Amino acid sequence: MADEIKTVAIVGAGQMGAGIAHVCALAGYDVILHDISPDRLQAGLATLEGTLARQRSSGRISEEERQAALARVRPAKGVEGLAPADLLIEAATEDEAVKRKVFAEVCPILDPEAMIATNTSSISITRLAAATDRAERFIGMHFMNPVPVMELAELVRGIATEDSTFEEAKRFVTSLGKKIAVAEDFPAFMVNRILMPMINEAIYTLYEGVGNVEAIDTAMRLGAHHPMGPLQLADFIGLDTCLSIMQMLYEGLADSKYRPCPLLVKYVEAGWLGRKAGRGFYDYRSDEPVPTR
Ligand SMILES: NC(=O)c1ccc[n+]([C@@H]2O[C@H](COP(=O)([O-])OP(=O)(O)OC[C@H]3O[C@@H](n4cnc5c(N)ncnc54)[C@H](O)[C@@H]3O)[C@@H](O)[C@H]2O)c1
């Protein structure tokens, strides 16, 4: 555990929030989990419980570790319940207005010394920091999905992030067993600057009829040795998140090469957001995923 941090509050109990809660609890931190939706909060806690149980049955953690981690996680009773946090990690929907609203709510409640981190995939850390009352204690802490499995977190400093905040964040991420890649504060940082245009290009390949869903994913799995096809990966990330990141690249870098594929826009407009919605480039509502094109 990092010396200064004992209690971690996580805002947003979706795919990422539940995963971050999981690794924090296993590393010995007390965790308070919050979501605007009580259903999503319950679902996040259930996901965490299920992942810990799978890790136990596959022998990756002991029964004592599983029980201790579970006992360290509690749901917040409203935003006020986040007050004891030494570190708050914001993992709400990838939408700047949503994140600004979260910061406006939590800043008056938190200890003035508490650090705030955002798990944003693409939004400017400097801009988000300016929406808080503590730009010097604010940092980008970009975990990868699924958090319990992926080894990396990108750390991104805003223009005002103090060295002490950066060092503390490094110690914290390391204490979770993650490796760090330091990125400068540019749209989508490093991983998504490279990954997301590849996914967007796969969607263009589908849109232009070069191949169907199965052919495109098979081509990249077997032809480029990617562990997952790009369309399967897009569904896994969430198509709303993919679109938000492409929009941030397109607008932030003012370059037409980042234009979001119209087919991606259409899927998001349909509410076909990928695995979390039961349908995206694949339909997950039966036992085996079925391509939707
Ligand atoms: N999905 C990925 O692969 C991935 C990877 C790295 C980072 N991220 C980033 O993590 C963040 C969350 O992504 P996700 O995939 O977990 O999304 P998600 O849709 O699974 O979860 C987002 C959660 O935020 C909650 N929320 C929305 N407004 C809120 C508010 N005002 N207060 C509290 N909770 C609120 C929603 O109810 C939802 O449960 C985004 O910034 C995203 O870019 C995602």
UniProtKB/TrEMBL annotation:
<dbReference type="GO" id="GO:0008691">
    <property type="term" value="F:3-hydroxybutyryl-CoA dehydrogenase activity"/>
</dbReference>
<dbReference type="Pfam" id="PF02737">
    <property type="entry name" value="3HCDH_N"/>
</dbReference>
<comment type="similarity">
    <text>Belongs to the 3-hydroxyacyl-CoA dehydrogenase family.</text>
</comment>
<dbReference type="InterPro" id="IPR036291">
    <property type="entry name" value="NAD(P)-bd_dom_sf"/>
</dbReference>
<dbReference type="InterPro" id="IPR006108">
    <property type="entry name" value="3HC_DH_C"/>
</dbReference>
<dbReference type="InterPro" id="IPR006176">
    <property type="entry name" value="3-OHacyl-CoA_DH_NAD-bd"/>
</dbReference>
<dbReference type="InterPro" id="IPR022694">
    <property type="entry name" value="3-OHacyl-CoA_DH"/>
</dbReference>
<feature type="domain" description="3-hydroxyacyl-CoA dehydrogenase NAD binding">
    <location>
        <begin position="7"/>
        <end position="185"/>
    </location>
</feature>
<protein>
    <submittedName>
        <fullName>3-hydroxybutyryl-CoA dehydrogenase</fullName>
        <ecNumber>1.1.1.157</ecNumber>
    </submittedName>
</protein>
<dbReference type="InterPro" id="IPR006180">
    <property type="entry name" value="3-OHacyl-CoA_DH_CS"/>
</dbReference>
<dbReference type="InterPro" id="IPR013328">
    <property type="entry name" value="6PGD_dom2"/>
</dbReference>
<keyword id="KW-0560">Oxidoreductase</keyword>
<dbReference type="InterPro" id="IPR008927">
    <property type="entry name" value="6-PGluconate_DH-like_C_sf"/>
</dbReference>
<dbReference type="Pfam" id="PF00725">
    <property type="entry name" value="3HCDH"/>
</dbReference>
<feature type="domain" description="3-hydroxyacyl-CoA dehydrogenase C-terminal">
    <location>
        <begin position="189"/>
        <end position="284"/>
    </location>
</feature>
